[in-house]
Queue: 2 jobs
Job 1
Amino acid sequence: MPVPDLVLDPALKLWVLLPISVVMVLVGILRSYISVLLQPKMKLQDYKLVREQQHLARLRTYRRNYSVFWAKQELQNKIDFFISEYSGTKYLKELPPSDPNEIKNPLADANSSDFLLQMVKNNFANYVPQTLIMWWVNYFFKGYVVMRLPFNLTGNFKSMLQQSIDTTDLDVTYVSAISWYFVNLLGLKSIYSLLLDDGDIVNQLMAQQQQQPMVPPIAGAGPSVDKQFKAELENLQIVPFKSCLDGIESRFAEKWE
């Protein structure tokens, strides 16, 4: 037997739908400003770390631009220079461990500790408001049918749109209060973009609301820097020579034809 259509009180829009949306927008804006206040102050990087990264980038740049040389001997001289210059530990921030199989503890690095502490602060500023809002909606509006969608949906959407409503024969187009909360949770990006006028803050805020924290890379989690230097030097030794003068006539003709 089909279930007759429900008659929804028009006051639900004013006393349920609007308060939930307004509270979520205001809490989201407040959380964005709290996140800005919780951002750590910029710190000067260790000059040894900067030097290490720049010399590693120098090796990678030459490997990718090996065709800028005229003669093969010129390229070989440059490779020999790099091998003699970067084979040691001159440009490393820290000496490699004596045991090559030793795994460095990423938590021992001060920068990693700061990253983890910042991540805990951001997660705390995210989970507490979300938990309070969900408790507020679930406590005061549990079991409320607050609206009906103006289009038909399949039965797969029933569990998503009718949470806290224990009926099996209610039409899937009816939406509960807690489901309206989740719809707002995922669909307020355009409102935040209009109010905050900052794309980075909006993206970070939406990631926080969807419980997807932006985790920075932890130092020491990847291969050691000395191994990266050795790998780049090995890649340089197998680079095929290609003169910058090869095909210069055709390139010149194509440019000026």
Job 2
Amino acid sequence: MTGSSWPKDRKHFFILSSAGKPVYSRYGDESVISSYLGVAQAIISSFESSGDQIRCINAGRHRFVFLNRHPLYLLTVSTSGESESQLRGQLFHLYNQLLSILTAPQLARLFNKRINFDLRRLLAGTEKLFDAMVDALSMQSITELKSVLTARLDASLRHAVTQAFKTAHVKEAGYAALFINNRMVTYAHPRKQPLHPFDLHILTNMVTTSTNYGSGETWTPLCLPRLNRTAFVSAYISYIAPHICFVAVSHDKDAFFALSHYQTRLREVGHHACCIAWTLMPRTMPQVTRDVGLSRPSTRP
């Protein structure tokens, strides 16, 4: 994105530190946006010095919405016509995406040691996660209805996949989900302890950007902020067939082999149903539903 064209986009998202250092920008390169972020940081600081917080500025067609999450500031500049509350909700999503990589206590420790710490070094390579989340935020129904994208499937076929989930379940899996073509088919959770939709968005975003997960198994630390913003869980990711992704989350950092066994059993008992589901899934726009699981199996075997 060139310096002359980036202001033409209808919506921009920025993250900067309280010292004014850029952390993330959806569009524009650092040489162009640094001066703008310096102005934004000065405006925010002027309000804070008087014991207040800036929330929104309306200037013609442009709406500037701020979110203060010290030691970070988040800002969106939009001409989309969305309300202040809608845009602030999207900033919360972007902040949750950051917390999925670095927990809140980690952020506090880093900036307590050095207020002008450059966070970009730790976030190097994660830009696609932020970009994908910003792109997903263009679907207002996801954020406002607290919903996730689900695959359109016949009820009997979804039930068959869900039954395979229940049959293959292992106790080490706290949460598990199956995605077909980046759309959720079903997910399992402890009884009366479902994941918040915002955390499901993080899992979905991880699958959407997992181009390097096409083969093999991946085991990665992940923070789900609405579940616990102070600690990591461990996420297991594997494709049981092309376009069919299995994700399991455990509180046990040593549960890799147990979750790998879960995936193996799911291949054995559910591979046929999953492949049929992929074949029959419409290639039209996916439905958006608040009932993210549609068929939510208990994690009890």
